[in-house]
Amino acid sequence: ASSSSRCSPWKQRRPYGINGRRTMHQSIRQVSFSGWCPLNVRCAKADSQRKPAKEWTLMDNASNLLTSLLNGGSMGSMPIAEGAVSDLFGKPLFFALYDWFLEHGPVYKLAFGPKAFVVVSDPIVARHILRENAFGYDKGVLADILEPIMGKGLIPADLETWKVRRRAIVPGFHTAYLEAMVEVFDNCAARTTEKLEKLLSIAEDNNMSHIELDMESEFSNLALDIIGLSVFNYDFGSVTKESPVIQAVYGTLSEAEHRSTFYIPYWKFPLARLLVPRQRKFQADLKVINDCLDGLISRARETRQEEDVEVLQQRDLSKTEDSSLLRFLVDMRGEDSSTKQLRDDLMTMLIAGHETTAAVLTWAAFMLAQNPSMISKVQAEIDSVLEGRRPCLEDLKKLQFLRLCVAESLRLYPQPPLLIRRSLKPDTLPGGHKGDPAGYSIPKGVDLFISLYNLHRSPDFWEEPEKFNPERFLTRKASDGITGWAGFDPTKGQGALYPNEVMSDFSFLPFGGGPRKCVGDQFAFMESTIGLCMLLQKFDLELRGSPEEVEVVTGATIHTKAGLWCRLRRRQSCTLSIES
Ligand code: HEM
Q1: Which of 429, 489, 454 is nearest to 137 (CA)?
Q2: Closest ligand 1 atom, CA of 345?
């Protein structure tokens, strides 16, 4: 679709947003019911609900002045979200970026003290940055934050290293590997359900019909066990036990997250490592994990066998005890990579694959737990496909509604909600928007946020964007102004199992796009589908309180402030004998 055909009168749209912290439910209500006019024409109701003009604080004025002085006219007529700084306090950044997106349009500049960020919420512009001119940008501030943790792993790697490592790693996610991993997903999810069944039995002995627990923490343990086994054949066993390595992994993940939300790179000051207790703990945690990973790498190297190489070349994983990615990297590429590089790769996948999947499961559970009829629909599908069995790959193809629930959760809660880039040379973004028919110029060194959250909730591309409607992926038409969902027909159980950025022409890109797209996308989709499947096969789920009580915070991913507290019951309606 040409970008000009999608041009919309942004300025006419209702400015939207409320001050202070907002819960996810409030955000949903705001957009769904407060009079957004689908024809993009200003309507009376929308006007009457405009938020009052924002009063600028001294900080806003100082921030704008500084931004104008330092960045001023360098990006031509690009709209500026002025007076924005004070809005940033007390709510996650991506919420504020959404408000300004509705107010200023799909490409705007965020005045932020000495820095200006360009915020992109347009599919064609996102496609340009991620795919067409992918090597004109790097990961900017994200690489600075992650380099001390992931070294030269794929996410922060410089271009030269990235090219070599990407070529080494991507073949590791071959179809036979994904098939073999389904068993790992099953076994780990079974551990979780067994644990929950035990807890329920204890509750039932005490005449209680349900248990209350924080599902976010259960999903976090599940995702950690899966990533440990599938990437380096190490059983964290975190669903059932605590260990120093698990503690260290959680410590490191939390530091990575803290760094991504903190504006001053405190970790770069050499003395901080010695003096600040938090930094000392981080260094100690990192050492525990690095020692563990080095041990696993040496073990894999010592047990390397020529026969294994042949088996892997034939992709016949049924003949090997260890089908992990580490085994693939050591056996197939062992000679090419230093221990340090392998360790960086493993650490990157541990972090990239853990928190994201845990968050997808959390928000899928959050949405489903508010929709008992959807849970029943998912359960009916699971019962009819599995008849009490554990799922295998063939079953996944038939669990269409469940797969769409996972995709829809990723639409509403993309993990991460923002992609970060910095321009390496001057560029011109695709134009066609109101006020910039020619496209904005981007000088070298500009930091950009591509907001997946905004793209996935854009009223221009999604009908009732805030509504959880898994079946929207079946009905979307090319006439929506984009290419449509060509190639996605999950009803036939063949072809792509999940919608992606190519089919949606970059209006749905939960795994990014272009050369830096996630290497674990199919892995993660399948893992999340199986995790949910095995949970809902056995249990009914409801929120303990109201959705408004689930406060949202964000670091690298979107998660809850105090856990996703749910009530879990044995399924009443389940008449099938379900194997344990
Ligand atoms: C639901 C779970 C997941 C989500 C939502 C997700 C999302 C993403 C996204 C959006 C990117 C692109 C980042 C960017 O362009 O800046 C990315 C990159 C990446 N992801 Fe994932 N991911 C998930 C699971 C995984 C898993 C399971 C693995 C590995 C086992 C993994 C490994 C990576 C790596 C290595 C990259 C960097 C790729 C590169 O720069 O070449 N991810 N992921």
Answers
A1: 429
A2: 35
Interface predicted TM-score (ipTM) over 0.90: yes
For residue 298, give both structure tokens: 């040496």
Q: In the numeric block, which tokens belong to residue 210?
A: 């349900």
Report H helices in 240-276: 244-261, 270-275
Q: Please state, for a pLDDT cut of 90, what percent of the chain lies above it.
A: 48
Residue 382 to residue 37: CA distance in whole angstroms: 38
Secondary-structure breakdown of the chain: helix, strand, coil percentages, each rounded to the nearest 5: 55, 10, 35
Compute the distance between CA of residue 151 and CA of residue 490 in angstroms, rounded to an integer.
39
Burial (CB count <10 Å: 0-12, 13-18, 19+), residue 88: middle
Contact by Cβ (8 Å): 537, 381:
no
| Rg for the chain, CA atoms, rounded | 24
Beta bridge partners of 441: 428
CA of 521 to the centre of ligand 1 (A): 7
pLDDT tens for each residue of 544-565: 999 999 999 887 789 898 999 9
Length in residues, the chain: 580
Residue nearest to atom 41 of ligand 1 (CA): 516
Asked if the model's pLDDT at residue 399 lies above 70, the reply is yes
Q: Which of 128, 518, 528 to mutate to test the pocket of ligand 1 (most atoms within 8 A of CB)?
A: 518
